[in-house]
Amino acid sequence: MSSTSVNSPSAETKLEVLDLTPRIGSQVEIDVAALLSGRCATEIRDLLERRGVLVFRGLHLDDAQQRAFTRTIGELMPQGDDGLLRITLDKAVNAAAAEYLKGSFYWHIDGATDDAPTRASILNAKRLSATGGQTEFSNSYAAWDELPDTVKKSVADLRVVHSVETAQWLVNPTPSYEELSRWRSHAPKAHPLVWTHKSGRKSLVLGCTASHVEGADTDESRMLLRELTEWATQPCFVYRHEWKVGDLLIWDNTGVMHRVTPYDPESGRLMTRTTIAGEEPLARGHEAGGF
Ligand code: OGA
Ligand code: MN
Which of 94, 119, 150, 289 fits 276 for a cystine, CB–CB 3.0-4.6 Å? Predict the structure, then answer.
């Protein structure tokens, strides 16, 4: 672990940063007032893109503060309770989402079937499960950068079809006709396997929504997707967060995949989540196209 300070023009906006692993994850020391002031928003955004996940320990933000912090970083998505979602598997609290959220036990990016997946998500730990419930993140920029050149060349132009249905089969292998119809009401989306960002950096786009490589033999494309996913989620690319109540964590949804280790739906685990709207389409110009 190494402790670094991010260079910035004025001393009062310097963040105290501790890298948690070499390739992904940094812990940021900042008090609530400074965080909400927005003074460090530019540094936080920059650090987020470079480090994939930022951890703020023990902030204990309330709902209004979480929304306010989110607005300093980007555009708060209008979802849930004035931009704030309650993430729980407890059907009594969030019946509609509880089933669907079990998909988060598998590596994924949020909004994988959207043209411009959400930019970042912010999770705030309110109640934890006695076992499980750690959240893991893998750096898909590093996973691309470190692929052998021969593999890069052979996969660079592939497109992968993503669907909600593909993820939901993992959660529920015996859906009712009505459930399957509901999954299929979300249109699948073909994305480039390699996201070339506005910055010029590239990242791999995988996850449990990935169904098959467009135009390829299904069996072969399944093998390739497994191989790449195994590569991208090997321990050197992963940061695992052991939560404490009051932790706030933000991840760059355009440059990392994430999953939560399984936990008991009855455990009472509750996170509040705010989301920053997508800022750049996954496919640009000539790469774009529907399913
Ligand atoms: C999510 C998600 C993981 C968790 O909110 O998108 O995947 O740890 N959450 O609850
Ligand atoms: Mn998620």
Answer: 119
Closest ligand to residue 273's CA: 1
Measured CA distances, 195 to 68, 129, 148, 273, 280 (Å): 30, 35, 17, 25, 10
How far is CA 14 from each of CA 6, 68, 73, 84, rounded to the nearest angstrom? 6, 20, 16, 29
Q: Report how far ligand 2's centroid is from the alpha carbon of 7 (Å).
A: 31
Domain count, the chain: 1
Q: Is residue 287 assigned to a domain?
A: no
Of the candidates 258, 104, 109, which has an alpha carbon nearest to the alpha carbon of residue 195? Answer: 109
Atom of ligand 1 nearest to the CA of 260: 8
pLDDT in tens, 34-70: 999 999 999 999 999 999 999 999 999 999 999 999 9
* Residue to substitute in 66, 70, 84, 87 for testing ligand 1 pocket (most ligand atoms within 8 angstroms of CB): 87
Phi, psi (rounded to 5 degrees) for 43: -65, -40
Q: What is the CATH number of the domain that holds 43?
A: 3.60.130.10
CA 170 to ligand 2 centroid distance, Å: 15
Q: Which residues line ligand 1 (CB under 6 A)?
A: 87, 104, 110, 121, 135, 258, 260, 271, 273
Closest-lying ligand 1 atom to the alpha carbon of residue 273: 5
Whole-model pTM: value is 0.93
**285 domain-assigned:** no
**Pairing mode, if any, of strands 53-56 and 26-29?**
parallel
What pLDDT digit, counting tens, does each position of 137-190 carry?
999 999 999 999 999 999 999 999 999 999 999 999 999 999 999 999 999 999
Looking at the domain assignment, is residue 291 inside a domain?
Answer: no
Domain that holds residue 238: 3-279
